[in-house]
Amino acid sequence: MKRIKKYKIKYPHQPVWTCFAGFLKLFFKRPEIINLAGKLPTKAIYVANHSAMAGPVVYNLYFPVPHAPWGAYPMLEGYKSRFHYLRDVYFMQKRKMGKGFASFLASFEACFSIWIYKGMHVIPSYPDGRLLKTLRMSLNSLENNRAVMIFPEHSETGYHEELTGFSAGFVVLAERYRKLYGEDIPIYPIYYHKDKRKMVVGKPRELEEFKRRGLTRQQIADEFCKITNDLFYGYVQDSDSSNGKTDSIELETVNN
User: Is-contact 151 98, C-beta < 8 A?
Assistant: First the structure.
């Protein structure tokens, strides 16, 4: 097995996040969790939709597996980087806000967001060659029994109920894990709907079943997008008329 260069995530106890998490629970209530997968391991990749700002917060507060999520790298840098990402990308591009209101919100959130990101054990995700650092930090997290959660949905035009596409970063991580350890890591799809307060965990998939079909990285990502959307169609969109068909599904977790 190849030796992995260590990139330690030095996130000590974060009192700011601990207090803030308790405050957030007043506004983000525990969702109904529908688990179709049985036991949920820590040595796994969880591929989830973002559901605007709510998703990462709710996953951190209530998802029953300790995990480190991928997050935009500017949010783990200095105030200026955090401000510009929040204003220009998150609020203006993705949330379609005007520049004035986006600037006001960004100037406020950029003050404390670094402590939230560190408290949530966020791994910085890079769009360039520094992705290697993201992969190494992710592998170290998995080695230390903390799962990795990735939000690969295309969000250039905002966040949508029906996901429009996935990026293939999680496939690259799964390939790297397979190359280093000689086995596939399970990849679990998750769909969360903030308004209906439902979270659905789908059955795990492995790279081998897609590789046998000769699919490329992007084709595998497209397949996972369809699988995740199916969770929305089957368990969230029509949940009001499901006649309780998911009531007997139990939630089990296990640490590997």
Answer: no
| pTM, 2 dp | 0.85
Average pLDDT estimate for 1-6: 48
Is 233 exposed, middle or buried, given 0-12, 13-18 or 19+ CB atoms closer than 10 A?
exposed
The owner of tokens 């391991």 is 41
Helix then strand then coil, in percent of the chain rounded to 5, is 45, 15, 40
Q: Mean pLDDT over residues 39-58, rounded? A: 92
Nearest to 143 by CA among 256, 51, 23, 18: 256
**Which residue in 223, 49, 65 sits closest to 151, CA to CA?**
49
Kindly state the helix (H) or strand (E) to which residue 108 belongs, with its residue range.
Answer: helix 99-119
Rounded Cα–Cα distance for residues 168 and 153 (Å): 10
Beta strands in the chain (DSSP E): 32-35, 39-40, 45-48, 67-72, 123-125, 147-150, 187-193, 198-201, 252-253
